[in-house]
Write a structure and sequence with these properties.
The structure is a homodimer. The first copy, chain A, is of the alpha/beta class. Chain A is built from 13 helices and 13 strands. The first copy, chain A, folds into 2 domains: 147 residues, Aspartate Aminotransferase, domain 1, CATH 3.90.1150; 235 residues, Type I PLP-dependent aspartate aminotransferase-like (Major domain) (Aspartate Aminotransferase, domain 2). Helix content of chain A is 38%, strand content 15%. In chain A, the strands form 3 sheets. Chain A has a 7-stranded mixed beta sheet with strand order 2-8-7-6-5-3-4, sandwiched between helices. Chain A has a 4-stranded antiparallel beta sheet with strand order 9-10-13-12, with helices on one face. Chain A has a two-stranded parallel sheet with strand order 1-11. In chain A, helix 3 packs across helix 10.
């Protein structure tokens, strides 16, 4: 039998998806699962997008331009302008989700054996995308106690070597919910310029901010435009995760030209979804305001409920819709699996993402889970009640 | 300014898309372009698919399973059964077009520096996908005179070395239209087994066969199931190129498990398009029969018209909807560009794919173009008339 590739053999399984099989078995036993494991909002997609699908008029579902339609890129440009981000349609490459935007960015800027510096915890799939490109992720630990703010800049700089190709952050952060300050961004930009490396920022949760937090885009910073690559997506903003429409934005002409060549090879982003996303951009502002208000309430609910569980701590999120929670367990992988296999209350259980997968180390994060507050408050209250009940019954609970 | 990657800097531009800018300029000058450059069928997508879009009921366009929905994979399994290909739904990974299926296959089976053996000419994007994976394509020349049948098996075997990871063909072939015989497939399978390497076959044009040609799938061959990887797509079969739904199929459990991990990292194939494709599979057989009949007629029309142009030769296609045409020019890149920039007849011109991009050598194929017979016959007749007129006027015409 022929051998598979080293990266194929060694890839970690996504912490978000690794318990999918156990979840299927639980459902087959008649158990209802509250999904706090994945950032799949339950909010309806914008009416304008749903309507655009229903009234789709083309008779041939044809290839579109590899870089995305001009009209979509123009609308996006206006959206960014409203967000104080000044770009041209030609700075945008429309991609199949932020996932493809990241893969293309790495294809454009890294060679096999290069390194990316990412504060950890980080979105686990970054490591898979890097592995696919033969690139190593160097995680710089952020601390739970400071809500996962940027690690000391000197620690980050000390990790830069001749193979380092980029600093990479997610802002607002998945999984921690931390929102980087303008000062933190400037410090990273300064490092990128000094060492002549790229600065990639995944801003897919741009609008989801709490407690007066403000967001600064990497493309608002001055002097770093040749180094900056912005990753974005329609998935979370418009609750259209299944559309798979994202984008890569940069003012660096060499990067966008190379990215376009990769984009041409895969032909185009999905046509019908792009059509629906174009309509979504025209949705009245109230849609997003309501979505943000809903997440605010959910976040407060989640925080209140979690704080009532003994021996549970949380890193209070200022943005996105995730929260890292420290539990009195030594192996959250085992605990999460146990909830699906051996726990139920009134035929209900809970699915969470074990946090170890969001750290580069084998053992870090084993006492944490990530929850996504993407359920309506009543369900969220019940979901966190299930977490409390599960902890009460978990045979391996500490203390 | 930070340096971009070697592969980003060195990627060739797709021969299908390289003249996109010139085409835009021609359109801005009021010129109508007949597109024979890209395999974008003009046939309507199936009614069932268009209807499924119009009646899409979900309120949340949500992530689907990373491997594709179970119902879609079950329907696909039945489709393959009708085509004498016996697989299980778990052997299928649904991808974002055949493009992603190929990228994932290469991610699963190659390490940086490995090699793929592909008879040439070949679909140009294979080279980009390989480059993205750090893999080298070794092209084995097939001959125009034999309509690009499989090169001598001894020549292919002589190219196999310790870095070779796979034999890779497209059957029916894009760009040549050649349909490999069962004997040719068996010879390749035997080599794959003997050297313990993979055998990848892109079968997206499976149904499009002419002059009594028959198609044998790699998954119909015995004894090679651990080595075989089938690439497929809904794009051509259902005239749904913009849907971006394809699949990777293999009975090799290690490959499918690794591919699933890559698939999980990019979350899922596009949800709405998958819903539409699922409906397309249920379309009555008449749809595909009519499509095949239309291509038969177009192919005959194209062959007849091309044969009437002096000093033009063609490799008669037995499948797919492409044809390689040898012209009395020494640089078909220049000729194709010239047609967009300096030629028009009654405000109309023609766009073709220069064939050099389908060969690995710098100079091979410079006297050829690829045309796609994806226009209705009347338009096709006019398009080939434009080719004749353009050749008459082309200042650099040979002989």
């Amino acid at each position: 039998m022929p051998e598979i590739s080293r990266k194929g053999a060694n890839l970690p399984t996504s912490p978000i998806r690794k318990l999918a099989h156990q979840a299927t078995l639980a459902k087959e036993r008649g158990i209802d699962i509250y999904h706090l494991n994945i950032g799949q909002p339950d909010l309806p997609s914008p009416n304008s997008a749903l309507e655009a699908i229903k009234t789709y008029k083309e008779k041939v579902i044809a290839y579109g331009p590899s870089e995305g339609t001009k009209s979509f890129r123009e609308k996006l440009t206006n959206y960014y302008k409203r967000n104080n981000i000044h770009i041209q349609p030609t700075d945008i490459l429309v991609t199949t989700g932020a996932s493809e935007a990241i893969i293309m960015a790495l294809d454009c800027i890294t060679n096999e054996g290069d390194e990316l510096i990412i504060p950890e915890p980080f979105y686990a799939n970054y490591e898979t995308f890097a592995a696919a490109c033969g690139v190593k992720v160097v995680g710089i630990p952020a601390s739970f106690e400071s809500q996962f703010s940027l690690p000391y800049i000197n620690t980050i700089e000390a990790a830069i070597n001749s193979r380092t190709r980029a600093l990479f952050i997610c802002n607002p952060n998945n999984p921690s919910g931390y929102v980087y300050s303008k000062e933190e961004l400037l410090a990273l930009a300064k490092l990128a310029i000094k060492h002549d490396i790229f600065f990639i920022v995944d801003e897919v949760y741009r609008e989801f901010l709490y407690d007066g937090a403000t967001h600064t885009s990497v493309l608002e910073l001055e002097g770093v435009s040749e180094h900056a690559i912005l990753i974005d997506s329609m998935s979370k903003r418009y609750s259209m995760c299944g559309a798979r429409i994202g984008c890569l934005i940069t003012k660096n002409k060499e990067v966008i030209a190379a990215a376009l060549k990769f984009a041409q090879s895969r032909l185009c982003p999905p046509t019908i979804a792009l059509h629906a996303c174009e309509a979504a951009i025209d949705e009245p502002a109230a849609y997003l305001e309501n979505a943000i208000a809903a997440y605010k309430l959910r976040r407060e609910t989640a925080i209140d409920c979690l704080r009532k569980i003994p021996n549970v701590e949380l890193a209070v999120p200022k943005g996105a819709f995730y929260c890292l929670v420290r539990l009195p367990v030594s192996d959250s992988d085992h605990f999460a699996k146990w909830m699906l296999e051996s726990f139920e209350d009134n035929k209900e259980t809970l699915m969470v993402a074990p946090a170890n997968g969001f750290f580069s180390g084998d053992k870090t994060g084993k006492d944490m889970i990530r929850i996504a507050f993407v359920l309506e408050t009543k369900k969220l209250v019940r979901a966190i009640e299930l977490l409390k009940l599960a902890l009460d019954q978990y045979p391996n609970k500490l203390a």
